[in-house]
What does this fold into?
Amino acid sequence: MAKWIKRGLLALLCLFAIGGLTAWWLLRGSLPRLEGELALPGLSAPATIQRDALGVITVDAANEADAMRALGYVHGQERYFEMDLLRRTAAGELSALFGERALDYDRQHRVHRLRSRVQAQVASFAQDKTALLQAYADGVNAGLNGLSRKPWPYLLLRSEPEPWTVPDSALVGYAMYFDLQDASNAREYAQWRLSSQLPAPLYRLLAHQGSSWDAPLFGAPVGDAALPSAEEVDLRKLPSPPPGPLAPLPFLDEIGSNNFAVAGSLTADRRAIVADDMHLGLRAPNIWFRARLRYADARAAGGRIDANGFTLPGLPAIVVGSNTHIAWAFTNSYGDWADWSLQPGCAGEATAQTCAGLTVHKETIAVKDGAPQTLVVRETAWGPLLHDNADGSALALRWSAHLPGSLNMGLSDLLHAQSVDDAMVIARKVAMPVQNLVVGDSKGKIAWRLLGPLPEREGDCSAAALVENQNIAQPPACPPWTIQTADAPSLIAPPSGRLWTANARTLDGLDLERIGDGDYVLGARAGQIRDGLFAKQRFTERDLLAIQLDDRSLFLQRWWKLLQDEAARVSKSGQSPALSALAEASKRWEGRAEPGSVSYRMVRNWRRAVFTRIANGLTAPAQVAIGPQFEMPDLKQLEGVVWPLLTQRPAHLLPRNEQTWDSLLEHAALDVLTDLNIAPGPDAVAKLSRHRWGEHNTAAICHPLASALPGFAKSALCMPPDELAGDAAMPRVQRPGFGASERMVVSPGHEADGIIHMPGGQSGNPLSPFWGAGHEDWVHGRPTPFLPGATRYTLKLTPQ
It folds into this structure.
């Protein structure tokens, strides 16, 4: 028997070895070609692709078309699967790869019918760049077909990659619309439902649009909310659900990006410096791909383009970077780019006779290993109908991304800009998800502008309205709006020589009324960046990197003090054991979101628990009225409501399920202990002290297919589980799978002094030398050169 067991184990080991060798062989077959010489169809003249130790490419070509063809070739070899995911995400076509598990996701995206819209609007997208887009697509397909075997994810999924087309590049751009904007306008829908079920003063309190932390470019802070009196709102007299689980909060873990700049007046040699870190969901490989493009171009100064930065595989463009004359950077703008309109007679099985302008589309969703699914999409002139109401009306969504002119290739023209003034002219024609553009030039000038299509609301339309045309007894007072890119708020050459944006409110007055609130975030992060810029009168690139890496928890300082003061005040009563334990465990305040900090984690979690209890108390009447379908709205400015509640402690605004404000704070502390599976008692402090911030904030940055593999194989598709510094309300935004998808600090004309970081690496193949390359420097914030390093590999391209 022992002999047969040994033989069985040996056979099993052989099978594992054969399986491992087969996997290695298949992976190796989809590695890109790095060296040698090959003929690239369509190329007009010889070109080269150089790679450094991190896999950063330098393309040298005779002209722009050849450069984009070569860029497409590299993207097709290194990142085809990730490009495919982006186009399928926008089009709602992931089920064809992943089967039924992706159906709900596809339905949510297919209702926007973006592939159909792109096919109808491809000329508007391409404009004068049709030849470049086609050259890029041809290069992508040549790169894909040049692999010895199809990219390894298709082998795992038992699927075939489909060729790349010009409309697919547009879909990649629209995938960023989904990533950067609220495609379902869920926030305004939840607020609309909430507003109809709460007394007006209570809703106004919840919807307060700022705090004392505001740090706009224009105007002053809105400040914290003025609390309504007991005569206006008294929670003690309003319905409240029975004690039970609390509705979770969809906010507090802020998302977004930072960009900022200093003018030449603040540097020793009159150089402008631009910093950028775009915060996105993180994966391996990274969403961006680093590249340097060099080619002859009569429109450029000196007749030649030399541009460095980050490309988005799927698009022939440098998204952010520097061309030696200007450096440009983005953060998401969070304006109001979508509106609801009430459409009478359009619910359910409505017809064109009851629903004005109704059209019906049948979308077929292909499903791997399953029958195709049909999705019926109903639309009016306003947009798709997404919510039916009990009175027979429906809500139609108008979203900028649906409209002609919402996306074009104008961004690529920034490569030709020679000054801030040039960039501002080019910006008038750029269509993409609306961004905060910050740009600096080689003469030391800086500027900010909203970049992208803005709604042109007319009639009674208002960005402040949650739903337009609510009076169904009258003709629509708010007609379907259009979009335009030419007229947008800007700030050129600010007198202070400083600019900053961090997804918080930038505007004030009439401009803010026009742009609206698209869920902009708390201003604490923007304020910390602003204060860092005003703390010095002279800057270098490393000074701006230090601001990007700032993980000081200035925002939570007052919450830590509140916790300590409350614990000291109630300690003698013995009625607050959880609060006392939490305060004792966090007594040593490091003041940073550093991996070893216990106090940061405890105070952060306590604040969240306090917010959850207060938000549930303030929304209690709506929870009773709406019932199980209630969803907590996104209230990113709630800090400006909670803090005055805690400092004033009005009895009429205390949640019904709490006896006193002291008991609310104790219950919040108990929530923290419960989440950590710790019971109040003599050993609670010791147990709490084992829970550091890094234990929670541990990197989970993996390939999209990692979750489909067993544990031993999954780890091979993930970056190391590093404990990460940083959090939300500080410049160094960081969560396990979210954070700075790139960091860049660069002065145009001084690129050799620039700094760059990128997580996840360049290549999508785990056997590539560029898988995860540079990731460790990103984790630790080590300065790395903006320009590519010494050439390790050279691939020569020749015309076929």
About this structure: The mean pLDDT is 94. The first strand starts at residue 36 and ends at 40.
